[in-house]
Amino acid sequence: MIIFHIDVNSAYLSWTSVENLKNHTGPDLRDIPAIIGGDQKSRHGIVLAKSIPAKKFGIYTSEPIVSALRKCPNLVIAPPNHKLYRSYSERLMDYLKSLTPEIEQVSIDECYLDFTKIAAHYASPEDAAREIKDTVYERFGFTVNVGISTNKLLAKMASDFTKPNRVHTLYPNEIEKKMWPLPVEELYMAGHSSVATLHKIGIRTIGELARTDPGILTLHLKSHGKLLWEYANGIDDRPVVSAPVKAKGIGNSTTLSRDGSCEEDAAAVLNSLAQNVSRRLKKAGQLAGNLSVEIKYHTFVTNSHQMPLDPPTDSAKALYSASLKLFSRLWNGEPFRLLGIRTTHLSEADAPVQMNLFDIDWEKKARLKKLDDALLKVKNKYGNDVVHKGPT
């Protein structure tokens, strides 16, 4: 099996630059000290993407704008344009899907591609990766890195090597030379708190982690320690999971203007997301039988967890309550920059629902459903901001 990990270089900055050059509306932000994010006048917000010249000033992603401006007073700041980013992302994914349907998109600017079934069409994986990289630049004007290996973990690690516009391999026989000398914080899924723990027990490189007794790691980091040991040794059996042709879920996510640091921060965001998803479920005439919550930490590590909804529901209150439970189970205490909820296992709203015999408060649920429906009608007529139902 051969897997590619394809990652857009500084996606937000690149896509904004391509539009600037195409429409003569601004400079190529990639060539000057520049960032995407925040507001230059108010000096609020965080750095979402940075140019290589900005990086030379010590500016880093997720850094507060005010801090970045202290390092580089002449820093050019462009506001985010998520509609534009979605457009470029869709065009990139459509091109890759024209090569093979075996594509797993994991974020707006990165995906895995299972090269195995189309390998016969190319002289080598490296030749295919270079062709993909060059075609993306010729068609769309931005660059990507392509990592190649036999599993997803190693392909992703390879794509994070020298940037931009590069192809890198990290086959199992290259792990000791290419990956083990790297600092342990560069290992996928090694977050800030995990790295701090590893440093305390004398582990500084990925190679040192790989050669450590996994029992010791489990003692200090529980199950996450075993996972990090496996990744340090290049072990990963996750398949590339291509998306179904028709979406089978409804969800929403948001990037926080500032990193959240407590459950109260999360509660406000999750309530808003639950209200939004509830409205979309009702509009689609669907009930959700499963809910998942996603957290992206300030380190850009992403985790998610899910639970069934019994009975299936489109209630904002039920979605919010379930999302709070999932967040509480999932959150590791580190600052978070994105929260998302997604409903799956959808069924028609007018389909018969199997009631739980031990849930006797059906009248209360019916009243809450009527309240949700009434709020939806008001918002559809007068706008989303006319009335808000607080978290309960």
Instruction: Tell me the strand percentage band.
Output: 15-25%
Low-confidence parts: 355-363, 383-387
Structural class: alpha+beta
Outline? globular
List keywords for this structure.
alpha+beta, magnesium, DNA-directed DNA polymerase, single chain, 392 residues, five-stranded mixed sheet, DNA-directed DNA polymerase activity, five-stranded antiparallel sheet, 13 strands, EC 2.7.7.7
Blueprint (SSEs and pairs):
Blueprint: E1 3-8, H1 11-23, E2 34-36, E3 49-50, H2 52-55, H3 65-71, E4 76-78, H4 82-99, E5 103-107, E6 110-114, H5 125-140, E7 144-149, H6 152-159, E8 167-169, H7 175-179, H8 192-200, H9 206-210, H10 214-221, H11 223-232, E9 250-260, H12 263-284, E10 286-297, E11 302-313, H13 316-330, E12 336-344, E13 347-348, H14 362-382
Helix pairs in contact: 10-11, 12-13
Provide a concise account of the structure shown.
With 392 residues, the protein is an alpha+beta fold. It is 41% helix and 20% strand.
Account of the protein in words:
There is one protein chain. The chain is of the alpha+beta class and 392 residues long. Helix content is 41%, strand content 20%. The chain is built from 14 helices and 13 strands. It has helices at residues 11-23, 52-55, 65-71, 82-99, 125-140, 152-159, 175-179, 192-200, 206-210, 214-221, 223-232, 263-284, 316-330, 362-382; strands at 3-8, 34-36, 49-50, 76-78, 103-107, 110-114, 144-149, 167-169, 250-260, 286-297, 302-313, 336-344, 347-348. It has a 5-stranded mixed β-sheet. Strands 9, 10, 11, 12 and 13 form a 5-stranded antiparallel β-sheet that branches. Helix 6 (152-159) links the parallel strand 7 (144-149) and strand 8. It starts with a strand and ends in a 10-residue tail after the last helix. The model is unreliable at 355-363 and 383-387 (pLDDT under 50).
